[in-house]
Amino acid sequence: MRRRRHYWGILPGAALLIGGCAVGHPSPASFSVRHFAAPAKTDPLDDAASVVRDFGYRVDTLDHQAGRLTTHPLESLPQDAPRRTGSSDSNRRVVEIRIESEGDAMTIYCKVLLQQQTTETHRLFAQDERGDDRPGRTPIEREAATDEEQNTVWETVGRDKAQERAILSALSEQLGPTADRHG
């Protein structure tokens, strides 16, 4: 009897492990969202690329089939982003825009990730991973065969929701004043 109760406790965890989470589909919890009427003549992803370029970003991927745009990281001023104790002053932003169309309506999702450079913290803790001070790693494991850019560690520390709203507002203006249904 006791064993059966144990199995029933494991079932929900196993179902989550096997089924996984809904990764890949944007949601209002992780993106700023606007609903639009589908434009008749222009491709909204090209309009989104134009808008993010106006904000100073360079487009990294532009996938029309998947309706997805990402940008190269844009270095930002230290006062623009939240700081963590013991962190460096290097910050950057990365934009992701997704567009889903359904009939004569479309939904545009925008996320601006704030990232902070944590290379020094990472190196500090990487040295102490074994708990002893004997050199046990080869030079290639100690970053000797890579360059500085490859060894830089960036940690996501939040989202810039104000810039998400600004990008969506600029996109709303570009798509036309009547395109925005819900604002």
How would you summarize what this structure contains?
The protein is an alpha+beta fold. It has helices at residues 2-19, 44-54, 119-127, 148-151, 161-175, and strands at residues 32-37, 59-63, 68-71, 74-76, 91-102, 105-117, 154-159. The chain has a domain at 25-114 and 157-175: TATA-Binding Protein (2-Layer Sandwich).
Keywords summarizing the entry:
single chain; TATA-Binding Protein; alpha+beta; 7-stranded antiparallel sheet; 5 helices; 31% helix; 183 residues
List the helices and strands and how they pair.
Blueprint: H1 2-19, E1 32-37, H2 44-54, E2 59-63, E3 68-71, E4 74-76, E5 91-102, E6 105-117, H3 119-127, H4 148-151, E7 154-159, H5 161-175
Antiparallel strand pairs: 1-6, 2-3, 3-5, 4-5, 5-6, 6-7
Helix pairs in contact: 2-5
